[in-house]
Write a structure and sequence with these properties.
Structural class: alpha+beta
Order of helices and strands: EEEHEEHHHEEHHEEEEEEH
Strand content: 15-25%
Oligomer: single chain
Strand order of the largest sheet: 2-1-13-12-11-10
Shape: globular
Largest sheet: 6 strands, antiparallel
Distance between the termini: 12 Å
Number of strands: 13
CATH superfamily: DD-peptidase/beta-lactamase superfamily
Number of helices: 7
CATH topology: Beta-lactamase
Number of domains: 1
Helix content: 25-40%
Length: 268
C-alpha cells in the first residue's frame, strides 16, 4: 500500500505501521513489525477486551459495583474518577471523565473476581489465544503495555472478526455507552458529546480528531500519548495500527489524519 510510504517522513526515530483487512489479511506494512513499543493508552482496548472476556465468562457483571461506580461505568470513563487520582469529580454516569485510575480499579476487580492478577489474566485471555507473543502488561492496566505492530495486527483482525468473544458482545462494546455525555478528549479538547464504548473511543462526529476526514462515524479505536494508535473502520472493512517512539504532540495532530485519509482513499 503506497499510502503507508508517508510514515517514513514522520519526524520520529522509529515507526511501524500496518493495514489489516476485515478478513485478517495484512494489506500493507512499513517499519520493523517486530520492534516493541510502549503503547501508553492503546493499552486500554487490550485491557477492555480482557474485561469483556471476564464478563462473558461470568466472572464479572456490567452492573457489579467496583470502586465508586460499576464495571460498566469504569470501562466507559463515566465513573466520575479523576484522570490520574482517586478523586471523585462527578457522580457516576453524569460526565465523561477520561480516567487512567478507572482502569486500575477495573484491573483489581478482575483480580478479585478471578483470583488471577490482571497482567496474567490479560495474557491468558487475549495475548496467548491471539498469538501475541511479544505483548506484555508491564505497568498500569490503562497505559502499561508493550507490543509490536505484528502483534497488534492480530488484535486488529480480532476486532473485525472476533474469535474470543461473541460478535454481539463486541458490537455492544463499540456502541456508545451512556449517550450524550460531554467530556475532554485528551489532546483534542472538549467534545460535545464525547462518545465512548466499553473501552473503545468512538469517532462519531468528533472534530478535531486523530482519525481522518474520511473516517466513518462508526470508526472505533484508541490512541496513546507514546505516539501510537489503532483504529478500525467497519465501513471501510479495514483497520490500521501505527506505533512510534515519539510522544504524541503537534506532529501527530498534523501527521495522523492525512495518513488515515490516504489509507482510506487507497482502500476505496
Amino acid at each position: 500500500m503506497r499510502s503507508l510510504d508517508v510514515v517514513a517522513g514522520w519526524p520520529v526515530d522509529n515507526a511501524a505501521a500496518a493495514v489489516v483487512s476485515a478478513d485478517g489479511v495484512v494489506l500493507g506494512s512499513t517499519g520493523d513489525q517486530g520492534r516493541r513499543f510502549p503503547l501508553a493508552s492503546v493499552t486500554k482496548p487490550l485491557a477492555a477486551y480482557a474485561v469483556l472476556v471476564a464478563v462473558e465468562e461470568g466472572a464479572l457483571e456490567w452492573d457489579q459495583p467496583a470502586g465508586p461506580a460499576t464495571v460498566r461505568h469504569l470501562v466507559a470513563h463515566t465513573s466520575g474518577l479523576a484522570f490520574d487520582s482517586t478523586t471523585q469529580q462527578a457522580e457516576p454516569g453524569t460526565r465523561r471523565i477520561y480516567s487512567n485510575t478507572g482502569f486500575d480499579v477495573l484491573a483489581e476487580a478482575v483480580h478479585q473476581a478471578t483470583g488471577i492478577p490482571f497482567g496474567r489474566y490479560l495474557t491468558e485471555a487475549v495475548f496467548e489465544p491471539l498469538g501475541m507473543v511479544d505483548s506484555e502488561l508491564q505497568g498500569p492496566a490503562g497505559s502499561g503495555a508493550v507490543s509490536t505492530c505484528a502483534d497488534l495486527t492480530r488484535f486488529a483482525a480480532e476486532l473485525q472478526a472476533p474469535t474470543l468473544l461473541a460478535r454481539e458482545t463486541l458490537a455492544d462494546a463499540t456502541t456508545v455507552a451512556f449517550p450524550g455525555l460531554n467530556g475532554v478528549l485528551p489532546g483534542y479538547g472538549m467534545q460535545k458529546p464525547n462518545d465512548w464504548g466499553l473501552g473503545f473511543e468512538l469517532r462519531d462526529g468528533k472534530s478535531p480528531h486523530w482519525t481522518g476526514q474520511r473516517s466513518s462515524p462508526r470508526t472505533f479505536g484508541h490512541f496513546g500519548q507514546s505516539g501510537t494508535f489503532l483504529w478500525v473502520d467497519p465501513d471501510a472493512g479495514a483497520a490500521s495500527v501505527a506505533l512510534t517512539d515519539r510522544p504524541f504532540g503537534e506532529w501527530a495532530i498534523q501527521s495522523w489524519p492525512p495518513f488515515t485519509d490516504g489509507v482510506l482513499a487507497e482502500l476505496a
